[in-house]
Every structure is written in C-alpha cells, then in structure tokens.
Design goal:
Layout (H helix, E strand, L loop, with lengths): L4 E6 L2 E6 L10 H16 L5 E5 L4 E3 L4 H6 L10 H10 L5 E5 L2 E3 L1 H4 L6 E5 L3 E3 L13 H9 L1 H8 L5 E2 H7 L4 E3 L1 H16 L3 H34 L2 H12 L11
Parallel strand pairs: 2-3, 3-5, 4-6, 5-7, 6-8, 7-10
Antiparallel strand pairs: 1-2, 8-9
Helix pairs in contact: 1-3, 5-6
Bound molecules: coenzyme A (COA).
The site of coenzyme A has 15 residues, from helix 2 and strand 6.
GO molecular function: delta(3)-delta(2)-enoyl-CoA isomerase activity
Subcellular location: Peroxisome
Keywords: Isomerase, Peroxisome
Length: 259
C-alpha cells in the first residue's frame, strides 16, 4: 500500500498531502502519527519556512476513521494517542500553516482549519462538524474558536445541528480566505506559501506568535477539557451506535438511550 501521508520540501515550503482517496482520506492512528511526525520535522528543519496541507481534488479528509474509533478508541493518557498528539502539534506550530481544501472536510478536516493561518477552498469544499451526531463532542478547541469566529448562533448550527456548509459560507464566517476553482486551489495555496517563504522568516514567525498569543493558553486549556469529554463520549453507547450505523449504512437510533 502507498504511504497515505506524502511530504515534499521545496523552496522553503513543506507540503503534506493526505492520500487515502478510496476512504475519502479518513485518518487512522498511523496517519495521525505520520502527520504529527511530518509537522515536527518541518518545524525542526531550518530550511522550511511555511507548511502546506492538502488532499486531492474533491477530497480533503473525511475526518477520523470511524472503524479505528470503534476498534481502538484513543483512550490512553501517556503517551497521548496519535490523534491528540496531532491536534496538539498543529495547534502549537510556530511556522505558518496553510490549508488547501476541496471536497469533503469533515471533523478534524474542518477543526484543523481553525488553527491554520491561511485557508483556500475549492468550490466543491463541503465542511462538516458531525461530533454531536456521532455521540461525541467538539475537539481541537473548536468549542472556543468557532463561536469566536462565527458567533454563537452560526457555531451552534455547525456544532449542535452538525449541518454541512459550503465554501461560500466558510468564507462568509471567516474560516477561509478565498474560494477558487477546485483545480486551482493547491497551486494558489503553494503560490501564497512561496510568497510567505520569501519574507523575513523571523518577522513572519514573530507576527504569527503575536496573532495567536492572546488565545494560546486558553486554546490549550480548552483542548485539554475537550479531550477529557471526548474520551468519555467515544465509549458511550450513543457513539458506538453512531459508528455501527455508519458502517451498516443506516440511520442511527438514539431514541433507545436515556439521558
Ligand atoms: N471512516 C472510515 N471510513 C470512511 C470514513 C470515515 N470517517 N469516511 C468515508 N469512509 C469510507 C466509506 O466507508 C466508504 O468505504 P467503502 O467504499 O469501503 O464502503 C468510502 O470511504 C467512501 O465513502 P462514501 O460514504 O461512500 O462517500 P460519499 O462521497 O458518499 O460520502 C462522506 C463522503 C465523507 C460525506 C461520508 O463518507 C461520511 O459522512 N463519512 C463519515 C465522516 C465522519 O463522520 N467522520 C468522523 C468525524 S469525527
């Protein structure tokens, strides 16, 4: 099997491609480890000035592999499970982080964007935060960052009703910088990355730090509390029913569970 996380470093830009298209780029534990390793390597490498992440045209990522959640729920404390290591890593990057998104961007495929510095979306991009409909709860500080970005009412639509939304709405709420034809989105993100890579690296990093510093401690604290709840929800009967229903290709029945 091909490595589902591909990386390339060129002209100061470190590019990560999620490449498991037959499963809509759903992320397994091994893929989270590869992603976190790639981000760590990019942060350490002095030649890297900017990091870009993308999938394929029409697929960013369908989020966590639900089979993995069912078979190997990430419950351990130490070391942190790969999914939570990945969240910690992208939320504390010092170098600029750019996403190019087209097609499905589900779960962490959307929450990750709240931690990017620049986000470009293809017209086919379809974002969704289905945590509640999976019996789970928000992660990656989305319970803090999304209402701050979009306001409570729109964040509630996304996080409580789990309604998918398109690139135009994502642009309107400030989640993405620009909407482009799908076939141009990665090239545009790379062009923006090259522009950033040509600027004084220390000033770029300092400015990123200044933009984020007021919220950094709160983000870390929120993520810790979300992780605690998320782990409890992962083994809840509601979540097990939701995961099983996805693979059985049926609607979950949450009516059978009391509060
Ligand atoms: N975990 C595991 N497998 C997944 C997956 C996921 N998150 N998302 C998609 N897949 C698999 C499907 O099971 C299917 O596999 P199969 O061909 O062996 O049956 C394949 O990827 C294609 O998915 P499919 O549902 O047929 O594509 P679609 O275009 O109709 O729908 C999605 C795409 C992303 C809207 C839909 O697959 C989906 O809702 N996935 C679950 C998303 C999710 O809840 N993620 C977790 C967030 S925490």
């Amino acid at each position: 099997m091909n490595d589902p996380i591909l990386t390339e470093s060129k002209d100061g830009v470190f590019c990560i491609e999620i490449c498991r298209p037959d499963k809509k780029n759903a992320l397994t534990s091994a893929m989270y480890t590869a992603l976190a390793d790639a981000l760590d390597a990019a942060e350490r490498d002095a030649a890297v000035r900017v990091i870009v992440i993308h999938g394929q045209p029409g697929i960013f990522t369908a989020g966590n592999d639900l089979g993995d959640f069912l078979a190997n729920p990430p419950l351990q404390e130490n070391p942190p499970p790969p999914v939570f290591r990945f969240l910690d890593t992208f939320s504390s990057l010092k170098k600029p982080f750019i996403a190019a998104v087209s097609g499905v961007a589900v779960g962490v495929g959307t929450t990750l964007l709240l931690h990017c510095d620049l986000v470009y979306a293809g017209t086919s991009a379809r974002f969704q935060l289905p945590f509640v409909s999976l019996g789970l709860c928000p992660e990656a500080a989305s319970s803090l960052l999304l209402p701050a970005l979009a306001g409570h009412a729109r964040a509630a639509e996304m996080l409580l009703l789990c309604e998918p939304f398109d690139a135009t709405k994502a642009r309107e709420v400030g989640l993405v910088n620009a909407v482009l034809p799908d076939e141009q989105v990665v090239e545009h993100a790379l062009a923006q990355a090259r522009k950033l890579a040509a600027l004084p690296a220390a000033s770029v990093r300092l400015t990123k730090q200044m933009l984020k510093s007021a919220q950094q401690a709160l983000i870390a604290q929120t993520m810790q509390s979300e992780v605690r709840h998320f782990k409890e929800r992962l083994v809840s009967p509601e979540a097990k029913e939701a995961f099983a229903a996805f693979f059985d290709k049926r609607k979950p029945d949450f009516g059978q569970f009391n509060q």
